[in-house]
Request: fold
Amino acid sequence: MMELAKAIKAALELPNGARFYRCALQVNPFSYLKRQNRPTAFADEEAYNQAIVQACREHNVEVIAITDHYRVQSADSLMKAARGAGIYVFPGFEARTKDGIHLLCLFDPSRDARALERLLGDCGIHEDDKEQSPTGKYDAQEFLRECAEEWKGICVAAHVASEGGLLVMLSGQPRSNAWRSPHLLACSLPGPLSDAPYDLKPILENKNPDYKRERPVAILNAQDVSSPEDLARPGASCWIKMSEPSVDGLRQAFLDPGSRIRLATDPPMEEHTQFVAVAWQGGFLDGAAIHFADYLNVLIGGRGTGKSTIIESLRYVLGLEPLGEEARKAHEGIVRQVLRSGTKISLLVCSHRPAKRRYLIERTIPNPPTVRDEGGTVLNLTPADIIEQVEVYGQHEISELTKSREKLTRLLDRFVDRDSSLPKRKNEIRLQLERSRSRLLDTGKEILQIGERLAALPALEETLRRFQDAGLEEKLKEQSLLVREERVLKTAEERLEPFEEWLNQLERATPIDRAFLSAKALEDLPGKNILGAADTVLEQLNRDIQNVVTQLREAIARADAGMKETHRHWEERKKAVLASYESILRELQKSKVDGEEFIRLRRQIEELRPLRERQVALERDLKEFQAERRNLISEWEDIKGEEFRQLERAAKKVNRKLEGRVSVEVTAAGNREPLAQLLRDQIGGRLSEAIEILKQKPDLSLPAFAAACREGRESLSRKFGISPGQADRIAEARPEVIMQIEELDLPPTTTIKLNVAAEEQPVQWQTLEELSTGQKATAVLLLLLLESQGPLIVDQPEDDLDNRFISDGVVPKIREEKRRRQFLFATHNANIPVLGDAELIVGLSASGEASQGKARLPQEHMGSIDSRIVRELVEEVLEGGKDAFEMRRLKYGF
Reply:
C-alpha cells in the first residue's frame, strides 16, 4: 500500500456505509450433529469449530447464524470461536412450529445468547427436552408475530420448498395466511428462484393472486451447514448488504432484496473504477473527509453546507472542465471563493484496468494535479490517464447540456465500439489533406508565375528574328553561343545543391539516439539480453552512415572542385570571346547597330526557354496531386462515414437499453456552423440566405458542394437552390477556400426524445425542444446513468428533473446500473437515497458563511438507511421531512 497522506489515512478510517457480506445463516453446532446422529469426521467440538471457522475464511464468509433446533446454549463455543476469528455471529435457533413449519429465528449480534433461553420457554420448550427436533406451541403465523413484535428478532422460512418448508407443509388458506404474513420477510432456497418447483414458482415470484403480497418475500441461499465442506456449496450462503451485521440490517435487506441480496448464482458485481476516499486541507472543507462506498453515494444537507463544494472539488482535483458556460462560471466561483487558494484536495482512486491499482491524486489550488503511484512516487500521468470516463455535472449543468445537440452527441461516446486504428488514420488523412492543399496551391502558383514570364517569350523571339534577318546572328554567333554555354554551366553547378542538402540532413540525423537501449533503461526488462542486441545494430549503423557521410562529403568536394576548375577554363575562353566581341561591337556601332541589345535578348530567351520544360513538369505534377487529393477526399469521407456508423450503432444500443423511455437519433454532419463560419470568414459579404439553405439541407455532401463551387454559379443555384448573386460570390472564392470546405469535419448532432406518456399508456415521444426543463434533464440523465466504468457525479439533479420521472425512471435505472459503476449525488430529494438504496449517505452541516465558515461532516452522519441515526437525518433534512419518509417507508418498505 502506498505511503498515504495523513488526511487520506484518516478518511479510510471513516464509515463507508453498507456493503455486501457473505452470510451463512443456517450453521449447526457440533452438538446438533451428535444429537441428530449425523456422521462427522471430527472427534470433538473444538476441532469441529476450528474447521468451520477455517472454512469460513477460505470462502470469505464473514457472517454466520448458528441455528440449532430450539437450542441456544449449544452454539456457545462455536460462537466464541467465530467471533474470535473476526466473524460476525447472529445468535438464534431453528424453530419447528406446531403446524410443522421450520423457521430460522435470528437476533442481533449484541443480544445476550443466554437471555434467549427464556424465549424457548415462551415456545413451550424446556432445557430438559430430549427430543431431537421438538415442536413449539405456536403455529407459523403466531410464531412470526411473536418473533417480530415481542422478541425483536427476524424470521427466515427455512428450506421453504422442501420437507419442513412452509410451502410444502401447509396448504390452502393456512398456507396463504402464513405466506402473506407481514412478519415473514425472507425464505431460503438451495439455489436460484428459477430452480424452484414449478408449482411453487408463481408464489415465490409473487404472481399467484391467492398468495399476493405488497412486497415479495426475499429469497436467500441458506442451506444447512453441518461440516466445513458444506460451506463450499453455492446454496449454503449468499451476499447480504448491510452497514454492519444487525437485525435492522437484515430487515432492510429483506425489504429491498433487489438491491441488497445476491444469491450464489447471481452475476457478480462488476469491477469498476471508483473513488476510494477524499480529504481537504484548507478552505471551507478544511479537515473534512469522505470514505466512499463502491456504488451509490449521496450527499445530503441544507443549502450552504458544502454539497456543491464537494462536487466541484472532485471536478477540480481531476482537472475536468465543465461542458457549459454557466457551469464553468459556477465552478470557477466555488474554487476561487469557497475552496480558496492554498487548499489541498487529496483523492484516492482505484483503477481496475489493466490491473487493480490505487493512485493518489493531489491538487493544491491553483496548481495542476499530481498523480502518485502505490509507492508514493509522482508519475508523469494526468488523472485522465488513470481514471477514464469520469463525468461531473454541477447544478443545472445537465439542463444547460440539453441546449446543444453537438454536446449531446458526446453522451454516446461510451456506447461506441471504436476501431482503435480509426482516429490515428483520420489524423493522418487530415494532415495529408493539408499537405495536399499546400502542394496544389504552391504548384498552381508556380505554374501561374511561369506562365506570366513565358508570355513575353513570343515577342522576344520575334525581335530576335529581326536581328537575325539583319545578319547579327552570324556576326555575333560565338558570343551568342557563349550565352548558352553560361546557362549550361550554371545548370551543372545547380545539380550539386540537392546532394549538399541531403548530406546536411544525414549529418543532422546522426549519431542515432540510443539512450533507450542503455543498460540502465533495460535493467528491469526480462528480455534485456535480447533487446541489447539492437544497440549493437544501431551502433554499427552509426559507423556505416558516418562512412557514407565521409565518402559523400569527399565526393561532393571533388565534384565542387571539378566544377570550379571547369568554370575557370570556361572563364578563360569567355575572355577571348569577349575580346573579339568588343571589336565586333565597335564595327557595328559605325553601322548604328546595337549588338549589346542582341546579346541581352539572346540571354533573356535562353533563361526563359528552360521554363517551358518546368511548366510541363509542373502541369504533370498538378494532375498527380489532383488525383492524389481525390483519393484522399474519398478516404476522408469513408472515415467520417465509419465514425458516424459507429455512433448510429451506439444510438441503437441506447434505444434498446432505454426502450419505451428514451429514443436517440444521430444526424451526420448535423452541425453546419463550421461551414457557415468558413464562408463568413473567407468569402464574406451577404451570404445569410445561402448559409441558411446549407444549414437546412437534410443531406449535405461537402464534396458535392465543393464540386458545385468549382463548376460555378449556375451549378450552385441548380443543385443547392442558392440565389445567383450569392452563388456568384461563393463560386468566385479562392481555390484554397474550396479545398478547406472539402476538408471540413462537420460534427454529428443528436436528437433525444422522451416518452411522456403515463405508465401503461401508449408511447408518446417528444423531442427535447418540446419538453419542459425537467423533462429535458430527465432524458439526458437516463443516458448518463447507462454503461460506463467511470464514476458519475451529479449535483442536485432534482433541480432540473420532474419528480415523477425521478421515482419512475431515474431511480430504477440507478439501482440497475450501480452494480457496475459508482455514483455520487448531492440532493435534497429523498427518492434518490431512499428508493435508490444508497450504500453511503453523508450528512453535511456548516457554521458561518461559505467565504468564512466551515463545513462539518460528522462521522455519525455517514451510513446507510439501516442506521437509525442516518435514517433520522434523512427524515429531518430531505424535502418532505418525516411524513414524506414515512409514506415512502410504508409504500416501499424502507
In short: The longest strand covers residues 19-27. Confidence is low (pLDDT under 50) at residues 890-894. Residues 274-417+751-892 form a domain with the Rossmann fold fold (CATH 3.40.50.300). The chain has 35 helices and 25 strands.
